[in-house]
Write a structure and sequence with these properties.
This protein has about 475 residues and is of the alpha/beta class. It folds into two domains: about 230 residues; about 190 residues. Helices cover about 40% and strands about 20% of the residues. The chain has a seven-stranded mixed sheet with strand order 12-13-14-11-10-15-16, with helices on both faces. Strands 7-6-5-8-9-17 form a six-stranded mixed sheet, sandwiched between helices. α2 packs antiparallel against α4, α4 packs parallel to α5 and α9 crosses α10. The radius of gyration is 24 Å and the shape is globular. Bound molecules: nicotinamide-adenine-dinucleotide and N,N,N-trimethyl-4-oxobutan-1-aminium. The site of nicotinamide-adenine-dinucleotide has 30 residues, from α7 and α8.
Length: about 475
């Protein structure tokens, strides 16, 4: 078998095989954390929390800034590990590492200014609020942005004075360990950021642990529902960053070159394994042929191969079963009447050492209709579906006709239309004349079944802290008794 448990029923013996997608070979095996290890991690985080919560915002800020500096210094090394683990091109992995240290810097900047308000009450009495940390927070990550996800969760958590136990996906267990090493080197108390390895069972132990105050999850909708259910038993708040099937709307008055570039960004980063990808590309009929021709031309030019090479822009998918899953969607699309305009095949790169890797050619599907499976379901691979439309009202109706609501995009030169359209789109993140950029200053997260809560931006402070109200009496107690 490709990946999985050797002894699924005897949890203590659960062993994972770590495949390297570039070569399709096992490079390591590891044991999962069981209930006992999860408890040890939570207890050590709890001890560290007692020290960390007492530090001033400025003290926490200094340590986060130092961690950000070390990440910058070790950027190439971390990006290489990320590429080996995930398969994304090293060029792209470096961009992920940039958004990671930027996130630490951003929350370091906010750490010292977290505060409450003072409220004057009658008779000289007053009240005030304090923003306090939650305690031990759990982070559970997906495999597509391992280091970035761990950074986007831990930076605000730590800035607010919490501890975090993080579980990466068992497909990409390594780079988060580098983050833990970096936090330690930067000076966080031992145990403040703990990493446990494992799959669903380990994740469940974490969500159920009585000393865990919050769960922040990034992954699929089905797992998100399970996590919410588990957390509800302990009345723990959750942040859910889930999947999507986002619309990208290209109006005929757009700058076509930019729209084509935007569509490529919206579909082919990280082999298309991106939650917020704009995979339903609605193109206004007048420019459908021109746009499609150019997108196909650019897609055929993407260099696929060893992602560690500087000029590669698309590496292998995460594992064989996912590759087959993605190819299955393309087969089904053909059966349902879509036309493969390019790609969609298994790809064996020329370099013989890559022959067992999980490569495919990026695919553009034409003649797509709203009811097709490729248009309705998250494929999580390099597959763009092109649909045509005529009017603004019609495209809005169709774009919103989905249970997902993570992201959306619009390309137009008409500034009024751009704002009118994004105001109607049911999505947590909307792009105008760009796609898939991620400034850490802006909140990121979904509507509808794509989840709730946010990462990044000032608002995330609220998801990693709680508000205490203090009411101060300056006079005598007026009892009703
Ligand atoms: N919205 C976002 O920010 C965002 C970002 C990246 C990925 N995603 C989504 O993630 C999905 C792909 O990632 P994936 O395949 O790793 O998702 P997944 O749901 O299979 O797994 C995500 C994580 O949850 C853990 N897990 C699985 N079952 C669990 C359970 N019952 N209890 C606790 N933990 C459990 C996994 O081990 C893994 O660490 C896609 O749907 C994608 O859209 C969303
Ligand atoms: C950095 N991106 C491209 C916006 C992706 C964020 C995480 C989604 O999978």
């Amino acid at each position: 078998f490709e990946f999985g448990t050797l002894a699924p029923k005897v949890f203590i013996l659960e062993i994972y095989l770590l495949f390297i997608p570039i070569l399709g070979r096992v490079i390591a095996t590891f044991l999962c954390s069981g209930e006992k290890e999860v408890d040890l991690a939570v207890q050590s985080a709890k001890a560290a929390f007692k020290i960390w919560r007492k530090k001033s915002g400025m003290e926490r800020s200094r340590i986060l800034l130092e961690a950000a500096r070390i990440i910058r210094e070790r950027k190439d090394e971390i990006a290489t590990v990320e590429t080996i683990n995930n398969g994304k091109s090293v060029f792209e992995a470096r961009l992920d590492i940039d958004t990671s240290w930027q996130c630490l810097e951003y929350y370091a900047g906010l750490a010292a200014s977290m505060g409450g308000e003072h409220v004057q009450l009658p008779g000289g009495s007053f009240g005030y609020t304090r923003r306090e940390p939650l305690g031990v927070c759990v982070g559970i990550g997906a495999w597509n942005y391992p280091f970035q996800i761990a950074s986007w969760k831990s930076a605000p958590a730590l800035a607010c004075g919490n501890a975090m136990v993080f579980k990466p996906s068992p497909f990409t267990p390594v780079s988060t360990l580098l983050l833990a090493e970096i936090y330690t080197e930067a000076g966080v108390p031992p145990g403040l950021f703990n990493v446990v390895q494992g799959g669903a069972a380990t994740g469940q132990f974490l969500c159920q642990h009585r000393d865990v105050a919050k769960v922040s999850f990034t992954g699929s909708v089905p797992t998100g529902k399970k996590i919410m259910e588990l957390a509800s038993k302990g009345v723990k708040p959750v942040t859910l960053e889930l999947g999507g099937k986002s619309p990208l709307i290209i109006f005929s008055d757009c700058d076509i070159e930019n729209a084509v570039r935007g569509a490529m960004m919206a579909n082919f980063l990280t082999q298309g394994e991106v939650c917020c990808n704009g995979t339903r590309v609605f193109v206004q009929r007048e420019i459908l042929d021109k746009f499609t021709e150019e997108v196909v031309k650019q897609t055929k030019k993407i260099k696929i191969g060893d992602p560690l090479e500087e000029d590669t822009r698309m590496g292998p998918l995460i594992n064989r079963s996912h590759l087959q899953h993605v190819l299955g969607f393309i087969e089904q699309a053909k059966n349902e009447g879509a036309k493969v305009l390019c790609g969609g095949d298994l790809c064996v790169p020329e370099d013989p050492k890559l022959k067992d890797g999980y490569y495919m050619t990026p695919c553009v599907l034409g003649n797509c209709k709203d009811g097709m499976t490729c248009v309705k379901e998250e494929i999580f691979g390099p597959v763009m579906s092109i649909l045509s439309f005529d009017t603004e009202a019609e495209v809005l109706e169709r774009a919103n006709d989905t249970n997902f609501g993570l992201a959306a995009g619009v390309f137009t030169r008409d500034i009024q239309r751009a704002h009118r359209v994004v105001a109607e789109l049911q999505a947590g993140v909307c792009y105008i004349n760009n796609y898939n950029v991620s400034p850490v200053e802006l909140p990121f997260g979904g509507y509808k079944m794509s989840g709730f809560g946010r990462e990044n931006g000032r608002v995330t402070i609220e998801y990693y802290s709680q508000l205490k109200t203090i009411c101060v009496e300056m006079g005598d107690v007026e009892s009703v008794f």
